[in-house]
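Support request from a user on the community tier.

User writes: "When I paste my structure tokens into the form, the page sometimes reloads and wipes my input. The last time it worked, I copied everything first. Here is what I submitted, just in case something in the input itself triggers the reload:"
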């Protein structure tokens, strides 16, 4: 591979990060009148994972967890983002789109095989680190929306019951993240106005 083709490959990956930044999520950026994007979400997920692993003294491979966090949503460049509360049919559609997106990434970025193996391991929840990040990915938006005084729940007509139904079984993949979920649900139960649309 020539130096020129090395630069072209690098520029292609830089372009991928730009495309990733353009994917808008379904929740507001806290305190701003815009939607959060995938790049900032993934950075925050990696950062909070690092914090929890250290704070709780978890027996997890920190580097692996951070890699999962940074790339877990990169498939959305090709598959798009979907609302968290989904039917079984929508869940299957999401899984199919994301697997197809992984294959597209494998073709386009053949010189980045560790990205693809990391995505596949995350999809399969192949180890404790992937389960931890999968669960934390479901918890983090709840914390962000709470800090944003419930605005995304109000806009999307999300009740506490709908939130619990859509999140609990996924967050239960990791026991430590589940403990945090139980704590935050108690906070939400005590603040029902977070789910009431403002006039």
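"...and here is what came back when it finally went through:"
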């Amino acid at each position: 591979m020539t130096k020129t083709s090395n630069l072209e490959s690098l520029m292609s990956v830089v372009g991928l990060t730009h495309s990733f930044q353009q994917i808008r999520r379904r929740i507001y950026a806290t305190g701003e009148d815009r939607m959060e994007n995938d790049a900032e979400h993934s950075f925050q997920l990696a950062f909070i994972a690092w914090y929890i692993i250290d704070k709780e003294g978890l027996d997890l491979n920190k580097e692996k967890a951070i890699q999962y966090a940074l790339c877990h949503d990169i498939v959305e460049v090709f598959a798009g983002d979907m609302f968290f509360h989904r039917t079984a049919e929508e869940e299957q559609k999401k899984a199919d789109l994301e697997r197809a997106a992984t294959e597209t990434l494998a073709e386009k970025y053949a010189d980045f095989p560790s990205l693809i193996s990391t995505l596949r391991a995350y999809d399969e929840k192949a180890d404790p680190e992937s389960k931890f990040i999968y669960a934390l990915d479901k918890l983090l938006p709840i914390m962000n929306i709470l800090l944003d005084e419930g605005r995304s729940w109000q806009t999307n007509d999300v009740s506490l019951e709908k939130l619990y139904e859509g999140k609990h079984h996924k967050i239960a993949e990791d026991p430590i993240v589940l403990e945090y979920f139980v704590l935050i649900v108690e906070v939400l139960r005590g603040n029902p106005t977070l789910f009431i649309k403002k006039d």
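Agent notes: The reload is a front-end session timeout and is unrelated to the input. Residues 12 and 82 are 26 Å apart (CA to CA). The first strand starts at residue 24 and ends at 28. Escalated to web team.
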